[in-house]
Amino acid sequence: MTPLKKANYLSLPDSRDIDHYLFTLAEHSDRARMVHIGTSAGGRPVHALLMSSSPAFMRHYRPEPGKATVLVLAAQHGNEPAGAEAVQQLAQELTLGRHEALLKRLNLVLVAMANPDGRDLSRRHNANDENTNIDYVALNAGETRLLVNTLQRFDPDLVYDAHESGIWKRVLTREQGWLTDVEVQFEVGNNPNIDARLQDYTAGFLLPALISKVSEAGVRAEAYRGEITQLGQRVARGGLGITNLRNYAAMQGRVSVLVESRLDNKSGSYATPRNIAERVRKQHLALLSLLQLAATDSRRLMAVSRQARAQWQSAGADRSLSMDVHFARNHAEPEVRLPLVRLSSGERRYHEFVNYNAIVAGEQVLLPPAYAITRERERMARWLERHHIRFMTLRAPQDVRAERILIEALQPQPRIKPGVREKWRVQARTEAGELRLGPGDILVPMDQPLGPLAAMMLDPRSANALYQEAGWRWLKPGPFPVFPVNPGKARYSTSQDSGDLVTAAP
Ligand SMILES: [Zn+2]
Q1: 232 CA distance to ligand 1 centroid (A)?
Q2: pLDDT, tens only, 374-388
Q3: Per-residue pLDDT for 499 more than 60?
Q4: If you classify domain 3-310 with CATH, what class do you get?
């Protein structure tokens, strides 16, 4: 029995109880193994439970030709515990030999608690009050970095991020008297710069298949509409930015799915405290349904995902990126009806919301051969290493063809612009010419699997640029210190070999 069931659902296990339980499962099964993947800000260990019928995977962790690797992350938010409980339950069932078909087609990496500090301190964030969920560009929190390392280490084809959403909202509930009436919502990587074939597969097949599978099992599932905080607001989808794991992983060429299940209202009366048994049941159904779909369709899922990692293909012409992405009014479906429940009476009614789920992909920029970095180079080198992005540090001056980016104006982003965390919109023009880079300057070649992701974070014109993050306020009018260059063919062919850091002699 999982610790939660053993406690008769009356108290949540802490991170040590959960670790202890998973270690015990692993000790008694040759298909399970616990791997230490890092330590939280508060000094708590973070583990992944590997589940596989393949001894080679248990030893080397590497992707296998006949099996999709799936990374499941639960409880990045400490106050959303049901996902971690569902992972423990599934792990137990698998060690007992249930769901036999799954381990024939899948190698599982289960991180039951991505944020053990949050679990033990009953809070959303880690012990340093960092929100790892929006940290995937800056990589400030140790937990985010260890999850990025985990992506690199296991190279999953499918990434699943499990959350719960509270339905009690200050304006919608307290002032207007309504609660949203959703059970389980799913979103997938939706940034328009994700590999085009991967997007087609995920949005066109996997998401609708998952929604119908869970609905058929009796739990109403829908596509995620973002947070509903008041009547009369616009609704869109999950955010388009790459600061979250869903889009970050998808930009790396992985099929990526988010679940948000209902975190019931404190004031309701339920069979178990805060309805935890029912919440775990929904999370378990969502997770199991996804894994069953992934196992059944593993061949196609692997092909699409591995192809995206080997050779990114943009949705637009050539290899181009949309720098300014946001949501806009969907003119084909201008309104959307969502079910709400009146807090006082339990009356259920549909309400109309303005539908803002059309994705606008603005200015297209051709992916250059490389980006040059000429400011705070040591700090930037550390940041690139954290992302596992390959780069070269020049030892001697080098002449390159450059496309300098000249920032002409900065506009504070209106709060109304949904879907992006962009704080400043950059107005810029480019100026092509020869330029001499100096010793210590950094070249980041785009001819690498993480090239498109790197460009979205490095290019100041991007809505997802690093410089939108606190601590990286580089944006100001004038020539920008990071810009596209063409260093000539020989220059970046050397970057393919060994580690993350390659120093090129002139
Ligand atoms: Zn969450």
Answers
A1: 24
A2: 999 999 999 999 999
A3: no
A4: alpha beta
